[in-house]
Fold:
Amino acid sequence: MSGATFSSFERSLGELDVPATRIKREEFTNQVEEAVEPPAVGVPLGETFDEPALSLDGTPVTVDPTPVALREATTGVTGARLGIGDYGTLALSLTDRASELVSLFVEHHVAVVRERDLVDEMRTGIETLGEEFAETRGSAILATGPSATADMGALVKGAHGPRTVEVLVLTEDD
Amino acid sequence: MAKADEIRELMRTEGAAVAENTRAFNDGRYESVADLEDYEALKSEARAIKEDAIERLPELIDELEVAVEENGGTVYIADDAADANAYVREVVADRDADRVVKSKSMTSEEIEVNEALESDGVDVVETDLGEWVLQVADEAPSHIVAPAIHKSREAIADLFNERFDPDEPLETAEELTYFAREKLGEQIVDAEVGLTGANFLTADTGTMALVTSEGNARKTVAATDTQITVAGVEKVVPSVEELAPFVELIGRSGTGQDITSYVSLLTPPVETPVVDFDDDETPLSAFDADRDFHLVLIDNGRLAMREDDQLRETLYCIRCSACSNSCANFQHVGGHAFGGETYSGGIATGWEAGIEGLDTAAEFNDLCTGCTRCVNACPVEIDIPWINTVVRDRINREGERPAEWLVDGLTPDAEDEGAPLQKRFFGNFETVAKLGSATAPLSNWLAGTGPSRWLMSRALGIDRRRALPEFERETLVDWFADRDSTVETPERRAVLYPDLYTNHVQVERGKAAVEALEALGVEVVVPEVPSSGRAPLSQGMVATATDHAERVTEALAPYVADGYDVVVVEPSDLAMFTREYDRLVAEDTFETLAENSYEVLEYVYGLLENGADADALASSDGAGVAYHSHCQQRTLGLEAHTVAVLEDRGFDVVTSDVECCGMAGSFGYKRDYYELSMDVGGRLRDQFEADGVRDRPVVASGTSCLEQIDALLERQPRHPVELLVE
Ligand code: SF4
Structure:
């Protein structure tokens, strides 16, 4: 995907106060370490992307934690299936590795998305998911910024889900 | 409680919070949709998808059923609320569940599933924070998207502090939110069953879309092993791809967010492992995803609505709440007055009529004044005012022929005998006005006396505090008949339509319109033409309105055929010609009139654009005016023309930005609604009494607005065309 997509994605995320960093694979371990606030848990990312290089080994992240560790964690690290430029939206797939729990039951969600999985528009994102669902009957959350509510008399970030979100975009140039 | 008292009480207790929140949503909507390049096209696309889906509904339901079963779920189609509840209770009992956690769902409120489950001793917990506040307070929702919109932060803090007695009293929105999150978080991880609604269901894959921001719906599904989803049958769309326009429109249209934090696209049962949240040994991925999924599709009157040519459109509704937020009356009273058993706002009339029946709709239907400010806001282009009119018509007739309307559809009778006296009085205002002019000034004097006001109040429910229109002895038609045209070689020829008010009451604005058009080289005629039918239509007297429409089109047709344009001073009558007649007369008859009709300043604008000599009109060097357009005029996109013409003639124009002046035809005259009408008008008054506006002369395009402004301000308002002929 083009750099233009990243910049629109980054701009949209910026409006949501979600930092987005474009990183190379060799920087991955360091960048994850910088993005997480311990205690941190994560899904096995190397398996999610089928790329051993993206393993979370060597980071402070506990991979595949127990439910109790999940509930005690501050940060959750998961992959994202897509990033959508015009809205700053992440498509978070629901997997049997419990990525839904890891991205939801934490204060701070760090999402890793590959630059090749960025699309310009919401419509393209939904079409992509639609095609996949037709095959896999899978599920995904279109997540845009942190959870929020205005039900208590003013806008508050961090309702039932994370209060903050951060995105790492993996470039393809290695 | 009498209606006026009930409304007064709600305005006092809930009005401020409702107003603040709905207006913020409404302002947000304007801003957010302005960012869409193809907003209109997107709405039309959404509309087309819904039209098609409802058309093919039985087939799509079958397809959905197959998909869900292939996925390992179960589909139950419930005829009504009792049927649905019986099924849900059975599922919950089979699971042996002590607690059901719920995400927000209007349909579940419609069937009152909470009460049904609680009667079995099941603990039902609402996890949407707004719904939870109401559950704790034991109150009903006042808004379809933000259910606790009527409660201020202070009221919620008082509620929590009293009920839960926390160590430190809660105060800020943040403290309240985190407190609720903690409390609910514990209950969610302990629950066996998660109950959700669905904003959309896709027939191709059995996927459901849930539009939320808090993350509670995600948790409700993820943390439980049995998912029950209750949804109206109308929620089905053909495929996942077709969700795209709705995803882009729903948040923008409702709360003014470009998109909500989460749009869950779930194809249940989902793959997330079902974990024991107290387990400190087993890794997450070692738990199985042993999940059950039950989709309960609810008819409860919807399939009959689908057969009903007038109510069918209601089924396209995606419950975004734009028609609540953009509604001036709703902004002042909220859904506790402007709503039925479950639904609130403009479209609630359709939902409640179809689901509960006409009686329920009748309780609040009059709060829709037909101002049309919701029409352009609706993401699926529903003609919400029309649904209100149709239902009002049916309510009027209910005494005559009960209960069969839903299946019969609307078949206008020759007479509107069923309507109550007050509605018939306002609906037949033409007769009153004719008599009023014929006997003026006696009629005006008589109408103003104590005994007549008492009688009007008693018999017709006309509020005694409201000044009555004063009829002119010489109508515009009479005045015009006695003068010669001043235009020798006309550029164009036009009929100035003598609407009821311009002809009988505000004759000056009619004279000014004639003079302005003639000054620009238009040959004008002012023939006798029946009134438009706006008055009976707004009372739900569709048959009478249709009769007017037929006579008006008949009277104007020869002129139009002869090359005359039709120029209309009163915006609500122009809206009849260019919008409402589409429903009342044959299509080509409607189109011919609609294409040749213009609002008077729109027409002046067109003449000037086409080279007419602007200097023939009066001008100013920068005199300030305050302009209030008219609700229906704005819906037709015609506010800008007046502003442009006035600015072109050197006026410095400030415009109001309220959705409606509050008068809305006869509405503000009615005893039940007078105070609400004045409360709504208060906002316009504030804008026109602000610094820099306070001393400006006021102009307004609509009759009702002129009367309302007259009541609100010291300054006597005029029609903008009067500024052009001084
Ligand atoms: S009728 Fe239209 S504007 Fe009103 S809630 Fe339904 S979709 Fe929204």
Remarks:
- The CA atoms of residues 43 and 64 of chain A lie 5 Å apart.
